[in-house]
Specification:
- This protein has two domains: 36 residues; 287 residues, Aldolase class I (TIM Barrel, Alpha-Beta Barrel).
- 38% of the residues lie in helices and 15% in strands.
- It has 13 helices and ten strands.
- Strands 7-6-5-4-3-2-1-8 form an eight-stranded parallel β-sheet. Strands 9-10 form a two-stranded antiparallel sheet.
- α2 packs parallel to α3.
- The longest helix is centred in the N-terminal third of the chain and has 32 residues.
- It is elongated, with a radius of gyration of 25 Å.
- The termini are far apart.
- Bound molecules: iron/sulfur cluster.
- The site of iron/sulfur cluster has 11 residues, from loops.
- It is a peripheral membrane protein.
- One of its GO terms (biological process) is defense response to virus.
Length: 337
């Protein structure tokens, strides 16, 4: 017969053995969750449907209000960039917007063209769009890459060259407006939808742009209120001081009122703009602008898309409210507009 002392010892050893395995299994479970590319922080999982990838900060213009300034000259190589784009597609991305800096600057647009081609031809994204100042675009680029682009948005804040120069939208003797017309014609010729972006600021808020915009007939005219972002265009760390460009909501609304007959106008005030974009920087880090600063997450290439998204500050409700989901491909445009 086993003594009660031995029996107690066996029970104690068994209990600590079970505890030990519980601990080990728990740890493995934790690692599995981390590896699954999503840390469940209790937050709603964000699907990155529409992403703005500012892949370069370098630019040939010097707009006084620029809020994505040349703080670094870094750019991911094409292989890594494509890997990141594929990860975003796997996480639910439907629309990619390539932006800068000036996206046509690196390798005279080849880097941009190859990414657009990859997104459209290989990832089969419904929408590939670009925002550019337009100055470096050539017809040969459209011949090679036009078919991979749904929408090209060109920045134009004024139809007066003096105003453009005062803002900093210009390089040497190049005429910004003449180049805008050329790009518009190439868009038509190569079947790319044409869009115009305008930043309303102290230099152009009095202008009436209606007639010219109606002639150019873009699919969308996005009108932004000049935005101040600490560390980018305001504050001691910033490369620009945009305070003298800043206008109040009231002045912005007066500009909108003056152009109310332009049906393709889509206004975007600071409140709408600040957190309703998913912004990826040159390292593929999401930038959180909720605090008025741009706080970067870790790169999606290091921690995965879903983990990085938890630090993006993205306001999904505002994204929908500002009409973030629209007919954003050439096909949708042909079928339903
Ligand atoms: S064109 Fe765009 S990126 Fe270049 S300086 Fe102007 S606002 Fe900045």
């Amino acid at each position: 017969m086993m003594s009660s002392k031995v029996l107690k010892l066996i029970i104690a050893i068994t209990a600590s053995f079970i505890d030990f395995w519980k601990h080990v299994v728990g740890k493995f479970k934790k690692i599995a969750v981390l590896d699954s590319d999503y840390v469940n922080t209790g937050c709603k999982k964000i699907i990155p449907k529409s992403v703005n990838y500012h892949f370069t900060r370098r630019c040939n213009y010097e707009c006084g209000f620029c809020f994505h300034t040349a703080k670094t000259s870094y750019m991911l190589n094409l292989v890594d960039a494509k890997m990141g784009l594929k990860m975003l597609k796997d996480a639910g991305m439907e629309k990619i917007n390539f932006s800068g800096g000036e996206p046509f600057l690196p390798e005279r647009g080849r880097h941009l063209g190859e990414m657009a081609k990859f997104c459209k031809a290989e990832l089969k994204l419904p929408s590939v769009t670009i925002v550019s100042n337009g100055s470096l675009i050539k017809e040969s680029w459209f011949q090679k890459y036009g078919e991979y682009v749904d929408i090209l948005a060109i920045s134009c804040d004024s139809f007066y060259e003096d105003t453009n120069k005062a803002i900093g939208r210009g390089q040497g003797d190049k005429n910004h407006v003449e180049q805008l017309m050329k790009v518009k014609n190439w868009c038509e010729k190569y079947d790319v939808l044409f869009k115009i972006n305008t930043v309303v600021n102290t230099y152009n808020h009095d202008e009436d742009m209606s007639e010219k915009i109606l002639t150019l007939n873009p699919i969308r005219w996005k009108v932004f209120q000049c935005l101040l972002l600490e560390g980018e265009n305001v504050g001691p760390e910033a490369l620009r001081n945009a305070e003298s460009f800043y206008i109040s909501e009231e002045i912005f609304n007066t500009f909108l009122e003056r152009h109310k007959n332009v049906k393709c106008l889509v206004p975007e005030s600071n409140t709408k703009m600040q957190n309703s974009y998913l912004i990826l920087d040159e390292y593929m880090r999401f930038l959180d602008c909720t605090s008025g600063l741009k706080l970067p997450s870790k790169s999606i290439l290091d921690i995965g898309v879903s983990n990085a998204l938890q630090f993006s500050g993205f306001d999904e409700a505002m994204f929908k409210k500002r009409g973030g989901v629209y007919k954003w491909s050439k096909e949708a445009n042909k079928l339903k507009w």
